[in-house]
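Quick one:
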Amino acid sequence: MADLNNPALKHFNFSQIEFIKSAPSLSQSPADIGIEVAFVGRSNSGKSSAINAIAGRDKLARTSKTPGRTQLINFFRIDDDRRLVDLPGYGFAKVPHKVQKQLENILNTYLGQRHCLQGLVLLMDIRHPLTKPDKTLIDFANQIELPVHILLTKCDKLSRGASQSVLLETRRALSAYSRISVQTFSAMHRFGIEEVHAKLDDWFNFDDGEGASNRVFT
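Output:
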C-alpha cells in the first residue's frame, strides 16, 4: 500500500496513471477504499481528452467523436490508494431512452454510494455552460456535500476576452455554492493543466501529506 503520509508524494507525477478496468455497475468496480476523483459531464464535453491531457498521455482514455460512447465506469490507477474515474456522459438526446436511464442509474448509484469519492471534476463546454442537466448534477453534489471543480472546456474555441467573461459569469451564477471552483481549460492547447493538477493534489492529499479523509454518506 502507498504511504499516504509520505511527504515525497507531494505533487504527484500524473503521467504514471494506468488504466485498471471498465465496469458496467458499482458492484463490479474496484474495492471502495482509498481515494477516488471522478470526471463527469455532458456527452462530448471532452472528458476523455481532459484525462489524457492531465496525464500527458494521448491514448490513456479512449476518445470518440460520437457522443454517448462512454457507457461504462472507467477506472485509472494512480497508486494503490488513489484512482481517477471516467463516468458515462449524460444529456445526449440521440442515445435511446432505455440507455439514458441505465446511464442515469449508473451515475446516481456511483455518486450517491461510493464512499471513497473525494471530489467531482465536472466538464462543461465553455460555449454551453450550466445546462439543465449540469445544474441538476451540481445540486445533487451539493446535497451530498461533494466538492466540485468545474472545467470550462474547449476555451480555445473562444477569444481570451469571451472566455474570461464566461468564466466570471459562471462563477457568479454559482456563488451560492461553497464547495465549487471553476476554471477555463483546453485539452488541445494544454491550457489550465497546472490548475487541475493543484486541485487533484489537494483532493488526493498529495499537497500536505495528510491521510485520506473519506466522506461517509448517511
